[in-house]
Amino acid sequence: MAEPANLKFLRRLVTTLTMVMIAGVVLIVALLVIRLQQPPPSSSELVLPDTIALPDGTAATAFTQGPNWYAIVTAEGEILIYNRATSRLIQRVQITVP
Questions:
Q1: 55, 75, 79, 97: least buried by Cβ within 10 Å?
Q2: What is the gyration radius of the CA atoms in the chain, in angstroms?
């Protein structure tokens, strides 16, 4: 007994979609393996300042850095941005939460 045309089309469509999904999973796993085998960033890329002079009465809660600056988030709700080369405070940003 021959299959109806719609059923044959549906069977081929499901088979094709299954193959595409398997290929996608294999590709994602391969990319993860390649990415995780790369060495971590060298310590020269993660240079932290030796000391940071905070204004009196401030307590640091977070630290972040950019290519030529670093920033300290304080418990008082302020972001202090320092020049990496001179370690001088270059900007203060007050955090306001509505």
A1: 97
A2: 28
